[in-house]
């Protein structure tokens, strides 16, 4: 835990010195909120759309975190950390913790601004939704850093993200309910774990805790985070052995 904290502080310090990172990270979902959200306003769907934007922020925020590791690999900074007594797992988890903190701050800011447009949720419901977002961030951040560690170059890393993150976002039902499309597309979307997480977040922000999606989404995101962290920590241990 001490090593995780040290790595977290090391990676968090530049963000604290330049908080515009958090602000600019919310620009894209805020544009979706302002420019796309009003198209759905007639059906009173802010309660449906805003949780989808939280999923979108998790996908595009933490999934691209690995880009920050590649310069450290190239410059030898990661190699210098490797020869210290710091835990190899902490080299991953400290970075992931930083990304989760930033993600939660951005999601909280987005949901707060969404109230201007008509989004409503209790503080307890918002906190629980942020917990889902945080666990999802752990999973995606772990995968992102692990892929960056293995690929080591931006030209190899970027196409992998481009070919996976966008389909995952579209199939999670962020923009439109998937059951409005062809049946085969809906079936494919159910294979996407983030569609279940999106359903869970929508349920909790609306206080619908009796919905089965709350349990299903919670179990899926926790299991997914556990598997991704396991893969990531094992990869960091092998590479840095």
TrEMBL record:
It holds the Pfam family ABC2_membrane. Signal peptide: none annotated. It comes from Actinocrispum wychmicini. Residues 16-239 form the ABC transmembrane type-2 domain. One of its GO terms (biological process) is response to antibiotic. InterPro entries: ABC2_TM (IPR013525), ABC2_TM_bact-type (IPR047817), ABC_2_transport (IPR000412), Nod_factor_ABC_transporter (IPR051784). GO terms for molecular function: ABC-type transporter activity. Belongs to the ABC-2 integral membrane protein family. It comes from the Bacteria. PANTHER family: NODULATION PROTEIN J. It is a multi-pass membrane protein. This is Transport permease protein. It is found in: Cell membrane; Membrane. Keywords: Antibiotic resistance, Cell membrane, Membrane, Transmembrane, Transmembrane helix, Transport. The chain crosses the membrane at residues 21-40, 46-70, 100-120, 126-148, 155-175, 209-232. One of its GO terms (cellular component) is ATP-binding cassette (ABC) transporter complex.
């Amino acid at each position: 835990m001490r090593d995780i904290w040290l790595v977290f502080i090391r990676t968090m310090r530049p963000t604290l010195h330049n908080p515009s990172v958090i602000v600019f990270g919310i620009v894209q979902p805020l544009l979706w909120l302002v420019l796309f959200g009003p198209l759905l306003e007639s059906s009173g769907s802010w309660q449906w759309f805003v949780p989808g934007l939280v999923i979108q922020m998790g996908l595009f925020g933490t999934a691209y975190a690995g880009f920050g590791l590649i310069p450290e690999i190239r410059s030898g900074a990661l190699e210098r950390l490797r020869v210290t007594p710091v835990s190899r797992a902490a080299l991953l988890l400290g970075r992931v913790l930083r990304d989760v903190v930033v993600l939660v701050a951005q999601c909280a800011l987005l949901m707060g601004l969404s109230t201007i447009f008509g989004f409503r949720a209790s503080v307890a419901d918002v906190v629980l939704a942020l917990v889902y977002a945080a666990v999802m961030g752990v999973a995606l951040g772990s995968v992102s850093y692990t892929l960056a560690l293995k690929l080591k170059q931006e030209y190899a890393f970027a196409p992998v993200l481009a070919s996976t993150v966008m389909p995952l976002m579209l199939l999670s039902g962020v923009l439109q309910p998937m059951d409005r499309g062809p049946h085969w597309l809906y079936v494919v979307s159910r294979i996407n774990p983030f569609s279940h997480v999106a359903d869970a977040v929508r349920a909790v922000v609306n206080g619908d805790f009796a919905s089965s999606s709350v349990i299903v989404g919670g179990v899926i995101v926790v299991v997914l985070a556990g598997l991704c962290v396991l893969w990531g920590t094992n990869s960091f241990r092998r590479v840095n052995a």
